[in-house]
Specification:
The protein is mainly beta. It has one domain: Pnp Oxidase, Chain A (Roll). The protein has 1 helix and 8 strands. Strands 1, 2, 3, 4, 5, 6, 7 and 8 form an 8-stranded antiparallel beta sheet that branches. It is globular.
């Protein structure tokens, strides 16, 4: 019987995240966590002769959240550009999982046409020694740049 090797579980702290905004790629050193999800949209289908409702996939929605240390003005500047000039910013996020102790290698995912939903414009907190903020976003396309290599356990 095959089983998962303990060292093939991925350490969530080992990886990198990059933003590609207007052709400028930068590592997101202030990232605490990020999660992107795809949710299928479905239509309800009624079928003659059956009382149950069927479902058919009809599209998808890409969305996510990221928590960052409150140490960059980048997202506030994007929002201010939209507020003042009506110019929205779409960019790319590249997320790489790379745990060197794992035999399954690395995975790299590109989220494309990312758009920020909300931004904390200003913040103080007397109970915090490190400020952070959570941003939600949507994306319109996704690409797997590199996949984990399947390993058969022993």
């Amino acid at each position: 019987m095959s089983t998962l090797k303990a060292w093939d579980t991925i350490n969530g702290a080992l990886g990198t995240c990059y933003l590609n905004i207007d052709g400028k790629k930068e590592e997101v050193l202030y990232l605490k966590n990020i999660e992107a999800k795809v949710k299928k949209t479905k239509r309800e289908i009624k079928v003659l002769g059956q009382t149950g409702t069927k479902h058919k996939s009809s599209g998808w929605i890409g969305s996510g959240t990221m928590k960052v240390y409150y140490s960059t003005s980048k997202f506030r500047e994007m929002m201010l550009k939209y507020i003042k000039e009506g110019k929205d910013t779409y960019f790319e996020i590249i997320i790489e999982n790379n745990d060197p102790s794992s035999d399954i290698g690395r995975q790299s995912i590109a989220l494309k046409q990312v758009n920020i939903d909300n931004v904390v414009m200003s913040k103080l907190d007397i109970n915090s020694t490190e400020l952070d903020e959570e941003l939600s976003f949507t994306f319109n396309d996704i690409e797997i740049l590199e996949s984990f290599v399947p390993v058969v356990g022993e």
